[in-house]
Design brief:
With 567 residues, the protein is of the alpha+beta class. The chain has two domains: 2-100 and 406-460, Uridine Diphospho-n-acetylenolpyruvylglucosamine Reductase, domain 2; 134-404 and 497-566, Cytochrome P450 (Cytochrome p450), CATH 1.10.630. The chain has helices at 2-6, 28-38, 42-52, 66-70, 83-92, 101-108, 122-131, 137-166, 178-194, 200-210, 224-238, 248-255, 257-287, 301-315, 322-352, 355-368, 379-382, 389-402, 433-439, 445-450, 457-460, 508-525, and strands at 55-61, 74-80, 97-99, 175-176, 408-412, 416-418, 421-423, 428-431, 526-528, 540-542, 546-548, 552-553, 555-557. A hairpin with a 2-residue loop joins strand 6 and strand 7. Helix 15 packs parallel to helix 22. The structure holds protoporphyrin IX containing FE (HEM).
Length: 567
């Protein structure tokens, strides 16, 4: 009886939990089953929240029992699935709910001094201030032509590949675009960070041109540096399944030789870029008399870092060490490419299924942005939500439906309450943002309203967004973001793809401009034809982000499209 009692998983009191927890292991079998069936652990949290309400919990191992907590044999994960409370918690209660150590541990071996791995301390704040300029409007405006060039390379590559489909030299009806988009995203980040692209897409184009009879899906081996970044990303992603998170950085450093090799060669490259940028910068600094702010003249992220370094040295303030700079460059290369690539891959899949959306988007571009016929749009033109409401609606809807970041985590830093439930210090909190933005609808309004009596004071100031309609919340429908007069409404319903608050996504502005340009430039040039179901299934696999398993595309130049399809 005593053994049975000691091994019984213990949930936190009062908070709803799954009934069928198993002895010693709690909800682990349930989580494993859903992860296997649906392609990611996040589905177990979504499922629990959908059944049990706005606050629920899953129990890992022995859960909250004394033995579980004392010997690391148990943990409780509280799930918060109410968009109003999530927003309030991220924006107003950051001191009580800090970035989770689990997430920091995932990145700690690869970029220990980078923002993704740092707790919210002075060092993190210093880094964020240092790099903040890279996300300002003037800097992103200067980077826009480079992003346009990368997107144009993708269009050129797809034009060549699509011609091979069209002339029937291949039995393939579509080609695999997964790697093209991934390389394009890395090329964008490299152009912004170092001032030069890795030319991954260009190499694919040259390869297809050199091999006129090869399959439209055929591509050269990916560049070595990109392959190394893939190894790093893969290691970080697999860390989610490591049983003792605190030991993960040590384990990776000690036993993962492939990772070590990839990191050494990535660091070698980044260091060489840093040294040559420093040499150039010092040479130019002697002649540079410009009084313009750095965001208006820096050529790349390295320049910004070096400029700030000089300012800080002059003021006698603390500068970033070489390790810190290298780790932040790694943060850009990894954090800035994978998420955006996955979202672009999801957008291709979604658009293939929605031909009328493509037609409406192109019509808006031709009518409201006619300059696109003669030159690429500028940052100001492409970001104008008033002029391009449908583009904004499509982009927001893609980010809502693609669930690239399925969930975010926080650690509870002190005993507190959440929607009336007591939550002890040290509890892990998970917010299934992907599910909430997609499924929270007016059908749950009575549940949400009933929580007003237990909401935190800052949350009571009011809900920031509307509700989705219950009948179509699960569907892809950009029109939900438009008011009756056709204008764009960013607060039409819950939308949290980048999270919020001080630890929300650092690169949101860059990601948004990249997505806008991707949609604009590809949709201006091509119609993405519908694909057979076996080439456009909805299976995903989850690492830190959620990726599609397949991404095929059959781009058709608009001149060759039968317009009667849209009448
Ligand atoms: C569609 C693309 C993207 C999505 C959906 C996305 C989403 C997210 C999410 C959900 C978080 C976690 C926030 C939290 O825990 O509250 C995050 C963090 C972060 N993202 Fe992004 N992201 C994207 C693109 C980018 C880009 C382009 C960069 C470029 C540098 C970037 C850099 C970062 C960094 C550095 C953090 C950590 C911030 C911190 O620790 O405070 N992200 N992102």
């Amino acid at each position: 009886f005593t053994i049975h009692h000691v091994g019984k998983p213990t949930p936190l009191p009062l908070i709803p939990h799954n009934d069928n927890m198993k002895w010693l292991v709690g909800d682990i079998p349930f989580i494993a089953k859903l992860a296997k069936e649906r392609g990611g652990v996040s589905y177990a949290f979504d499922d629990t929240a959908l059944r049990l309400g706005p606050v629920s919990q899953v129990v890992i191992g022995l859960g909250a029992s004394w033995i579980g907590r004392t010997f690391g044999l148990g943990q409780v994960i509280v799930i918060l699935a109410d968009s109003q409370e999530i927003h309030d918690l991220l924006v107003n209660r950051a001191a009580e709910f800090d970035r989770s150590k689990l997430v920091n541990n995932l990145f700690a071996a690869t970029l220990p001094q980078g923002m993704l791995a740092l707790p919210t301390d002075q060092q993190f704040k210093h880094h964020k201030r240092y790099l903040g300029i890279t996300m300002t409007n003037p800097y992103l405006a200067r980077m826009t032509p480079r992003i346009v060039d990368r997107m144009q390379e993708l269009v050129d590559l797809w034009s060549v590949a699509a011609k091979r489909l069209a002339v029937g030299s291949s039995a393939e009806v579509a080609f695999n675009a997964l790697d093209d988009i991934r390389l394009s995203s890395i090329d964008v980040i490299a152009s912004i960070t170092f001032g030069t692209s890795f030319d991954g897409v260009k190499a694919s184009l040259e390869y297809l041109e050199r091999n006129p009879f090869t399959s439209p899906s055929s591509r050269p081996a990916i560049p070595k540096l990109v392959a190394d970044l893939e190894v790093l990303l893969d290691t970080i992603g697999k860390g989610i399944f490591f049983p003792v998170p605190t030991l993960l950085p040590w384990w990776t450093r000690t036993f993962n030789h492939k990772w070590r090799k990839a990191l050494t060669s990535t660091h070698g490259y980044l260091r060489s870029r840093l040294y040559s940028a420093r040499a150039d910068y010092e040479l130019e600094a002697e002649h540079n008399t410009s009084k313009k702010p750095v965001a208006h003249r820096a050529d790349n992220v390295l320049d910004i870092i070096l400029e700030r370094e000089r300012e800080d040295q002059t003021r006698g303030a603390k500068t970033l060490t070489e390790t810190e700079i290298i780790d932040e460059l790694t943060t850009f290369a990894l954090g800035g490419s994978e998420t955006t690539a996955a979202t672009m891959q999801w957008s291709v899949k979604i658009l293939c299924k929605h031909r009328v959306v493509q037609y409406k988007l192109r019509t808006e571009l031709l009518n409201n942005l006619p300059v696109i016929n003669t030159r690429p749009p500028t940052y100001t033109e492409i970001s104008d939500e008033t002029n391009l409401p449908y583009l904004s609606a499509v982009m927001y809807e893609i980010l809502r439906c693609s669930r690239t970041a399925a969930a975010i985590d926080r650690d509870v830093t002190c005993d507190t309450t959440l929607l009336g439930y007591p939550i002890p210090k040290g509890t892990r909190l998970q917010m299934p943002i992907g599910m909430v933005q997609q499924l929270e609808n007016e059908g749950s309004k009575h549940v949400t309203d009933a929580l007003d009596s237990v909401r935190n004071a800052s949350s009571l100031r009011g809900r920031k967004t509307g509700y989705w309609s219950a009948s179509d919340a699960h569907l892809f429908k950009p029109e939900r973001w438009l008011r009756p007069d056709g204008s764009f409404n960013a607060t039409a319903g819950p939308w949290l793809p980048f999270s919020y608050g001080f630890r929300g996504c650092f690169g949101q502005k860059l990601a948004l401009i990249q997505l806008r340009l991707f949609l604009t430039i590809t949709q201006f040039n091509f119609f993405f034809d519908a694909l057979p179901e076996e080439l456009n299934g909805w299976k995903s696999y989850e690492t830190v982000t959620s990726h599609p398993v397949q991404c095929y595309v059959r781009p058709i130049p608009w001149d060759n499209v039968d317009m009667s399809l849209f009448r």
